[in-house]
Design a protein that fits this description.
Length: 363
C-alpha cells in the first residue's frame, strides 16, 4: 500500500478545477482516489448545504474522468466535509489516493489508510448505542484494511455521520419513534459523541461496560484521543477513515497526533508534527507538512487560561465558529498554511476543553 496526499484549494464548493489540473498533469490518477476530506465555506450547521453541493460537484467531475456515474463515484470515494471556514481558514480539500506499493522496510512504518462504512441508521438510532457499536465495528474493519495491528499506531480516525434533519424528525414522529432530541442542530453533540465513543470502544480507549445511551454527550470523562467526528444532514450512514503508520505501507509519508490543551495551544500543534516525524525534538518545516486535521472547542465555562471569553455567551455567533477561527489562526501561525481542516465540537474527543490534532508529514 502507498498513500498519496494532495491538497486542492477551492474558490467555491463547486470548484473542481484544482482536481482537474492535477489529473491532467498526471499528479493524480482518478482511479486511485479513495477518499477526500475538506472544508467548505458554509455555516457548519444542520442547514449547511455546501457539503452536499461539494460532494455532487466532485462526484460529477470524477464521473466524467472515470466513465461512470456520479452515484458510482460516491460509492467508491469517501467524501468527508466540514462546513465553516471562519477567520483565516481556507476552503480546500485533501485528496487521498491508494495504490500498490512495497513496504518501507528499514525506513520504518509509513502512512496507511483504511476505510469502512456502516449501514444506514434510522433517525431514532442517531446518537445511541446502536451507532456506537456500528462505528466500533467499522473502525476495526478499517484498521484491519490499513494493515495496522496495534492501536498505538492509529493516529487519526475521521468519522462523518448523520444528524437529525427536520425530515428525519418528521419520519420518526410518523412512526412514534423516540429521538435523542427534536432539535436538528441540538442533535450534533449526540451524533458526534456516539461516533467518537465508537472509535474509543474499537481502539480499547473505553470499556463497553462503561457505555450506555445515557452516557452519550453526558459522560465526557469517556473519550478517544484520536477520533475526529462530524455530523451532517447529507448522510444516513457513517463513513470511517482510519489513518496510522504501518510496516506494510510504502512511500515517504507518516502521520502523528497530539492533544491540544486549548484553542491557543501552539505547542500542541508542534507536538503533533514532531510525533509524525518520530522525533519529539523535531523542528517545524512547513515544506514537509502535507495536512493538518484538528478539532476546536470552547474553553470550559468560557474561561481561557484565566481570561473570560464570550465564546459560550455570544448570542450572535455559535461557539463552534469562534473556536474554529481561533484555532485556525494558531495552526496557520505555526505551519504557514491556512488550508487546514478544523472542525468544531469535541464531545468524547479528548477531555473537556482539550481536542485532538493530527499531522501528515513527509518523512
Amino acid at each position: 500500500m502507498r498513500i498519496g496526499v494532495h491538497k486542492l484549494l477551492m474558490s467555491s464548493p463547486n470548484d473542481v478545477s484544482g482536481l482537474e489540473r492535477m489529473i491532467d498533469a498526471g499528479t493524480i490518477d482518478p482511479r486511485e482516489i479513495v477518499a477526500l476530506i475538506g472544508k467548505t465555506e458554509g455555516n457548519g450547521g444542520a442547514n449547511d448545504f455546501t457539503r452536499g453541493f461539494a460532494t455532487l460537484s466532485l462526484s460529477l467531475a470524477l464521473a466524467r474522468r472515470l466513465g461512470s456515474s456520479a452515484e458510482d463515484v460516491a460509492k467508491r470515494v469517501a467524501f468527508v466535509w466540514s462546513g465553516g471556514t471562519e477567520g483565516v481558514l481556507s476552503p480546500h480539500a485533501t485528496v487521498f489516493t491508494r495504490s500498490a506499493g512495497q513496504p518501507s522496510g528499514a525506513g520504518g512504518k509509513r502512512l496507511a489508510l483504511g476505510i469502512a462504512v456502516t449501514r444506514d441508521f434510522a433517525p431514532e438510532e442517531v446518537g445511541t448505542m446502536a451507532e456506537v457499536r456500528e462505528v466500533a465495528a467499522a473502525t476495526k474493519k478499517a484498521q484491519a484494511e490499513a494493515g495496522i495491528t496495534s492501536a498505538k499506531d492509529v493516529h487519526y480516525v475521521q468519522v462523518k455521520g448523520p444528524l437529525l434533519t427536520p425530515a428525519a424528525v418528521a419520519d420518526a414522529d410518523s412512526r412514534g419513534a423516540k429521538l435523542v432530541t427534536r432539535d436538528p442542530n441540538g442533535s450534533k453533540p449526540y451524533a458526534r459523541g456516539a461516533t467518537a465513543l465508537g472509535v474509543a470502544l474499537a481502539l480499547g480507549e473505553v470499556a463497553e461496560a462503561s457505555l450506555g445511551d445515557a452516557a452519550i454527550a453526558q459522560r465526557l470523562d469517556l473519550f478517544s484521543t484520536v477520533a475526529n467526528t462530524s455530523a451532517g444532514g447529507e448522510l444516513r450512514n457513517c463513513e470511517v477513515l482510519l489513518f496510522g503508520n504501518s510496516e506494510t505501507a510504502g512511500g515517504d509519508l507518516r502521520i502523528g497526533h497530539a492533544v491540544l490543551r486549548d484553542v491557543i495551544d501552539a505547542d500542541g500543534v508542534r507536538a503533533a508534527i514532531a510525533d509524525a516525524k518520530g522525533d519529539p525534538k523535531a523542528s517545524v518545516d512547513p515544506a514537509q507538512i502535507l495536512a493538518i486535521f484538528a478539532k476546536a472547542e470552547a474553553p470550559p465555562n468560557g474561561v481561557l487560561r484565566g481570561r473570560r471569553t464570550t465564546m459560550l455567551s455570544d448570542a450572535d455567533i455559535n461557539y463552534e465558529r469562534h473556536a474554529r477561527a481561533a484555532l485556525g489562526a494558531v495552526i496557520a501561525s505555526v505551519t504557514g498554511d491556512a488550508a487546514i481542516f478544523v472542525s468544531g465540537g469535541t464531545e468524547h474527543q479528548c477531555k473537556p476543553g482539550e481536542a485532538p490534532i493530527a499531522a501528515i508529514v513527509r518523512a
